[in-house]
Design goal:
Length: 231
């Protein structure tokens, strides 16, 4: 893998895809199998949104959001959890308020540039031997020199059905139609972000994740990763 890593930093594997594609579950498990750090880029956007709302800043005011970011000590643990000023953020990042505001925070290019720079800092940690990063643009923009770039592909119908079952299991009342339409709106918004839009790029490996169990998906990812490690 080192031949693909001219910057002499640790190797990176990226998993990108749309909301609900299962990429976070896969990335976390793959990182665990490899003994690498997991970087959940969506959680970084959510953490910044959490700090913006806490500071009563308008999430659509990109200059004010940048100011919030410039004052934040933001980092992530090897399990992917994001910290702000030593506070580990977990459930706080998955609230309807964060869901509603995170796209406003994530849209402006100047915010993406600044946050990406912070995320890349994880690579400078000498304890980190490798990173599995997931997101929308982890391979195309955050880590363009990643050794392996995977696009996790799942149809809107399957993603909506999975999300519906998760909501039901969690006892959260939401109709299947509402979930389908929310996901479809989110896809549209994500896909308007130019080079940061989730899409298959030349050189990506595509993992069709609509109808295979997690264990099978992980085996496939490990095969791809091992082939690189051994080469
Ligand atoms: O994957 P998620 O739902 O936790 O992502 C939260 C939000 O952050 C979502 O609106 C898309 C955005 N995001 C992004 O723009 N770029 C990334 N690399 C990851 C997430």
């Amino acid at each position: 893998m080192s031949s693909e890593n001219p910057s002499n930093q640790c190797p990176v594997i990226t998993l990108d895809g749309l909301s609900g594609s299962g990429k976070s579950t896969l990335a976390r498990k793959l990182a665990g199998e490899l003994g690498w750090a997991y970087l959940d880029s969506g959680a970084w956007y959510r953490a910044l949104t959490w700090a913006v709302l806490r500071a009563s800043v308008d999430p659509t005011d990109s200059q004010a959001v940048l100011q919030v970011l410039s004052r934040l000590a933001i980092s992530s643990q090897s399990d992917g959890q994001v910290l702000i000023d030593d506070l580990v953020l977990g459930k706080q990042l998955r609230t309807p308020m964060i869901d509603a505001a995170v796209s406003d925070v994530a849209d402006p290019a100047e915010i993406r540039l600044a946050l990406n720079q912070r995320m890349r800092g994880l690579r400078l940690n000498p304890k980190v031997t490798g990173i599995v990063a997931d997101g929308r643009d982890a391979g195309a923009v955050i880590f363009p020199d990643a050794s392996l770039k995977v696009y996790v592909d799942v149809s809107l119908e399957v993603r909506a059905q999975r999300r519906f079952e998760q909501m039901q299991a969690a006892g959260i009342e939401q109709t299947a139609d509402a979930i389908h339409s929310a996901l479809s709106d989110r896809d549209l918004r994500d896909c308007r972000r130019g080079e940061a839009a989730p899409q298959i790029h030349a050189g990506d490996r595509v993992l069709q994740n609509s109808d295979i169990p997690v264990e099978v998906a992980i085996r496939r990812l490990l095969e791809w990763a091992q082939a690189l490690i051994q080469s």
